[in-house]
Fold these 4 entries.
Entry 1:
Amino acid sequence: MTTEQVHDIGKRRAWVIWAVALAVYVLAVFHRSSLGVAGIIAAERFHISATSLATFTVLQLVVYAGMQVPVGVLLDRFGSRAMLLGGLGLMTAGQLAFAFAGSFPAAVAARAAVGAGDAMIFISVIRLVTVWFLVRQAPMVTQVTGLTGQLGAIAAAGPLSYLLHELGWTRAFATTSSIGLVLVVAVALLVKDSPYRSDEVVAIKLRALALSVRTVWGNPGTRLGMWSHFTSQFSATVFALLWGYPFLVQGLGWSSGGASTLLMAMTAWAVVSGLVTARLVARLPFYRSWIVIGIVIAMVVAWTAVLLWPGAAPHWLVVVMAFATASGGPAAMVGFDLARSFNPTHETGRANGLVNIGGFTASLLTMALIGVVLDLSASGGMGSYSLSDFKLALSVQYLFWAFGVLQTLRYRRRGIDHLARLHPGAIDQMKSGRPFVHPGIGTEGV
């Protein structure tokens, strides 16, 4: 099958395609983060407890994480354009249904639809980065993708909060759902799957792609990327999507405006730290997983200071903790760069899907456990939780940090052995500061 190149790689068309796909990712993050500022309102609207409130986001992330492998298979089969269009359709329908939901079960079903659509977006964008940009460009573009996507979190923390106040629940969510219709048109007109006339991975039968997931999963580099993602991402996700706002407002006594401002400032800090992380990753490819672990240690130290502080921690310390937590977002993006070193291009959809499962699995488990601990500490609903209740509940994060770091170190060792055995010279190449590019053989897992 021909793979004739018909478009330049890393040039103007690549940037246009990336920009459109990135806009879709920004919208996905916005929809995903919308409960971060609407959680207290949702608890009142549907008359639910903390555990039930967590169900919204947990179910959304369960659907998101559970769909990563099948979406990865479909992505390698049908391409990014089709998956972006499908994801936009599901997110738009889900958010519109959420706007008009009058009962808790209906609202949960709507959020599940949002999660299903969201599941198709990020790895589709990352696959476009992989095929449309040069190897030297890919790490920075990947980081910028993750960081720019967080503009959606800013929009959820600021503008959505304003819309909820001015327009009310139904009109605010209905208005935001309409953005998806505009992006459907943009994706249909501008996004192309590949700079080549024919991409041979699309011709592979769906059954063969599904069976090959076992091979991709058996590759220790895929698992190293997944555990790096698992360890570094969940704290920022839990804080921004659900429990950060209640902790700040009800636990620490911050104003609503102050809490929203901090959530937006976290995104700005993630941009700064992400640029530094991308530079380090590009210069020190052999030490990428150690960079991730170093960022996680900084998060653990900052959280420990806040949780052990007698009473409410001072504002400056909370800001330091929030910024350290926000740095976990860029650190999680390193997981995709790790997987790229161990898997050929035609397996990137499956590899990235498996990597993406890590952080979101940790996030949903942490969110659920925090809700359970809060309800066990004080059963009187959202209004009854004290600062000590929040501190106890948020301590469950240490379980996931510890387990994740151990697994990252374990698969770092296995990954090094894997490269030394199958790709002699790759280790020395990375130690010298040059990235290792997989030669394209895709049968070395398991």
Entry 2:
Amino acid sequence: MANWISNFTSETDLSAKHIRPLENAEDLDPLMHRIGDAKYVLLGEASHGTHEYYTWRAEISKRLIEEKGFSFVAVEGDWPDCYKINRWVKDLPDSGSSIEEVLKTFKRWPTWMWANWEVAAFAEWMKSYNSNLDPAEKVGFYGLDVYSLWESMEIIVNYLEKEDPETATLARRVAECFEPYRKNDSYATAYRGMNQRCRNEVVQLLTEVRQNIKKYNDEREADLNAELNTLVMKNAEKYYEAMASFDSSSWNVRDSHMVETLNHLMNYHDDHAKVIIWEHNTHIGDARATDMAAHGMHNVGQLVRQQHQDDGVVLVGFGSYQGSVMAGEFWGGKMKKMELPKAIEGSVERLLHQHHSKNQLLIFDDDSPLKEIFQERLGHRAVGVVYDPHHERGNYVPSRLSDRYDAFLYIDKTKALHPLHLKPDGHLVPETYPFGI
């Protein structure tokens, strides 16, 4: 560690050349150059409740869409909820009069992840940008996650009853299989006992929806919506069963599902499609560069690199030294604004703060000295939706930063993001009101 600190802090010329200041969108030019013609750009976050991570991801995404023709944004969110945003930014019929109207329908805890002012502002920008494009060229917004079992089931049953009554009969049978477990639905609980007939019928339903997909053309992307809601049903059953084993298998099922969904989206779009992915660092940073690999875990960043490296993959991590964050004290608990303590000694974030207490952009090109310098395994903070600032040392993932990411945005001081909440008088205020933000 001492050698690492010496190499990093003594070479001021090296630092000035390879670690750039990060103050505005123009400072992202080196990152745009690093991305080049890559088709897969994965943008992380060190927490699900930090304003700056959302706004910097939005700035990067705007430039990728405007300058490099990226096709859609795919996020760590439920397919049905995010598809509502997709319909709104593409101005499809009955998609909502405002983005606030769309986001207030997000009910699943933690609601603040997507129902917030930062996402609303980016969605407004997307809709404005799309307004000048032909329908087939409009930029989309999709959810990759596996948690929306019940919502996806209800959507597919209702949709098939209108469009494909024969397949709807099978969908209703599948729904009946899942119904006994509905009361246990949450991130933190799991169920066992799904019989083999139910599993077979979930797979059969997905097969039949795919075979009949060309029938589902009453609205642009209706076929995509039907297929991916069915895919959620198939993989959600595997995910919840895996959770009951209390090992790494549920994590792997979830991240494999997100990559499977991503691949479906890329195949649905044309051969020139490019995607921007928004997820937590623990999903987009290559797991092989962390202690996750020793526990038998893989993640989205690793799988996308392995499957699509020839098409260009760029992984961008985020981190910060101190500030505030939105989180809950326990699963399902009331969200609150919490202090984000100063990063611990020996962490990536502490060392970057000691180097320069300003926002910084690091690019890990193969010929950059930073590539070798950041091979040292260092703690890298990861804050979840459940967070206890008083037990900070357990929130650090040992990481070889320059293998985990291709670039890193360091924000010295952050603040909590701004959740939405609709009061009875119709005025939007932060959800923590009256306690303030």
Entry 3:
Amino acid sequence: MVIKISKTIENIQQYSQPFHDIEDLNGLIEKASKAKYILLGEATHGTAEFYTIRGEIRKKLIQDHGFTFIAVEGDWPSCYEVNQYVKGHSNYSHAREVLSQFHRWPAWMWANEEIIPLIEWLKAYNLDKKEEDKVGFYGIDVYSLWESMETIVAYLQKINSPDLDKAMQAITCFHPYNKRPEQYGMSAAFLGESCREEVLELLNSIVSKRRKYMEEDKESYLNLQINGLVSKNAEAYYKAMVTDDIESWNIRDYHMVEALEIVSQFYGKAAKGIVWEHNTHIGDARATSMEQEGLVNVGQITREKFGEPNVYAVGFGTYGGTVIAAEKWGDRYKIMDIPPAQLNSWEELLHRAGSFNKYLTFTEENRYFFEHTIGHRAIGVIYEAAYEHYGNYVPSKVSVRYDGFIYVDQSKAVTPIAFSNEGETRLAKDT
């Protein structure tokens, strides 16, 4: 083990490159840009550098390499407001205002200061573009059942659609659960009182009238279609959530890939997408202990579905610093210390190889040197630093899990926008 560790450190030193700014990452960006989908990860949902670095990478990919949309681990309805803003179809005057409608806990994931520069840049970038050439911003997560249903009803009312009756039947079916997914999940799982038939009938009807809806407005139909998809898959997710964590996780990640594919189809054959999610979603599950548990994820599904050459996954990690997280589900966030990484973990070896920011790209030449299983830190929205050694390290074959890795030696917490915890709803589990 001692020989392997010392050799791994030597290999990190040989194959990694230090970085100070976005220009230093051009080698990684150039390699990644050949893929159709670039998956950018994060070891936490509350680290400032992960947002700012990925924001700068995205600018490069859009401006220099023709990427056409961004898909994030966020709710479709809230992110669609951001999409409308960056495309110039919003009454909001500043990104900070549009972020004010991120209410679901943990709101700090998107209602933070670090994301604002990217949103404003996207708006400026799109300003002189034709509608079909504007870069979009979309949330592909599954949680927004009630918000998506309400959006569907409002739109169908607006255009006087014959599908309005089906939408009303579906949303009325969910009314008794008072927007509490755990209540619906318990009822559907144990009492057989499900709304699945209603949401399936609605989605099928929407899809069958695709041409008619697209005559109204193509992106409005995309919004309608994805909200219908969310309604269907969220119903299944919340039902599974109370009985089977593995099934609910897999439903969620399959949904995110399904939504990603629909958005990609909207942008046509030349579409190139940037996906922004936690490492546990974008790093191939087959290279981790997740596989033995029966879990799949976006990284695995996209590689299998679209082909490995079309997917480039970049993991992110840190040795120590601070992070925004909560001690319990639904609690108010705190700035927490991230202790030094566990001895002989991936992050600790990166630190020992040189206590500075660095990146690696895994190639045929060097991938073999990083294929052994090693602990790799993952911090969710709930975090207890005192116990992190017992549950925050995922055994991983790093060079199989990712195509590249960006390491920040000392990181700091994101800065939540002041309103980010006001009125947050506390819905489903999240990593």
Entry 4:
Amino acid sequence: MDLISKQNRGQGLHTAGGNRATRASAQPVRGRPVVQITSPAFKQNAARALGDAGLQKALGKAKGAFLQRRADAVSRLPEFEQLRDIGRDIKNHTLANLDFYLETFAANVERAGGTVHWCSTAEEARATVLDICRKADAKTVTKGKSMISEEIAINDHLEAHGITPVETDLGEYIIQLRHEHPSHIIAPAFHLNREDWEADFRRMHTDLDPNRVFNERRDILAEARTKLRSRFLAADVGITGANFLIAETGSSVIVTNEGNGDLTQTLPRVHIALASIEKVVPTLEDATSLLRLLARSATGQDFSVYTTFSTGVRRPGDLDGPEEYHVVLIDNGRSNMIGSEFQEMLRCIRCAACMNHCPVYGVTGGHAYGWVYPGPMGSVLTPSLVGIDKAALLPNASTFCGKCESVCPVKIPLPNLMRHWREREFERHLTPRAVRRNLGLWAWFAKRPGMYRLATRAAMGTLSLLARGKGVFRSLPLAGGWTEGRDLPAPEPGGTFMARYAKMQREGR
């Protein structure tokens, strides 16, 4: 039974399949479309992305900056590798005792005057948020950036019931104007160029001076703040995510660089913090250790500009703060990962370092992955939450270069976890028939070393004849899937690897 259902006195076993039904049953609304799972169309999505000149320009410009800033930040902290071990151990300990720390967190939230809502599924979480908003007679809700809110499609649900959600993070605000979804977990508008931002501002804000030029990102940020100021003041409810939940104090923690998160949770009368169950950590000291990893891995900062701890409701004498503080704890399939080979994925602190360094994400962008979580972390997490039948292509969208694991601040073995999903895919016969047939043929030869050596020698000889002195094959029968997008190097003289290795061994090299 999942952890949330235990708290809800046995409301029933939740599986990741329940989330698939959630997506299918969501109602389309005005504004941006309901998130649909298009992961089965990853190949088509990626092909479109590769042909999109604007996207390729944006990816090329943004990615390099992330990589350099992270490298510089890590170089300034000699104990960074030791800190990675500490972060990994904190998360492992917490996951091993997750029920205890969740109960401790909930008790301390309530002690501080807040309310904890335990939600097994996305449907339960949406219904809970809507109920809180209705009790507050909310017409407008301001939102800080939150990937879990994307996962449960809360914007769509609120709009469908007459409540207007307003994204206050600049990137989220832009893509809300465009009726799109985030393409990156910390930089939602990663796929856009500055001219795209300006065009959308002019399209949606007709009162702008047509002669005004936005030369810098900060010019657009200043304009967005002007437009959003009245929304902050008018909002009845503020919704944020949570980077961490601290069991010791019942606090939720958010990090931002724009200050919008602070305004979202302190100005409205009601603050709702949405968080998945693995965000809890035992103590304040643990949270600060992970915060030292988070900003350096995500944006190359020593610390984010704003790091905000929220604990309960406004107390007598406080200058600001909400009258009601609600934490909506969401399982949505994560309990199924506990104790499985995918438990390590729950260590993720959502820094996006893996996707920033991923060569596949770097040319396809996030929308190609077809759901909320892109890149290597999405290639592991998405099958866990929506089912491998809907996301089988994602674990295969990897070169297995290992860069994602080498930069992960909590040392998640992402390539190994993707291999586990490939195994699951093969076991369930989800792999294309041609692939299974060819793997079967290769396995037959691999189990027979003599036949394998004979076959490879024959293949090398044939390819050498066909190459006729050329360095590469631009097309080749039975290899069209490869040569359609890249050249196939011709074999070098000297025979197979095994033959060359045996020769070197004989020669004592």
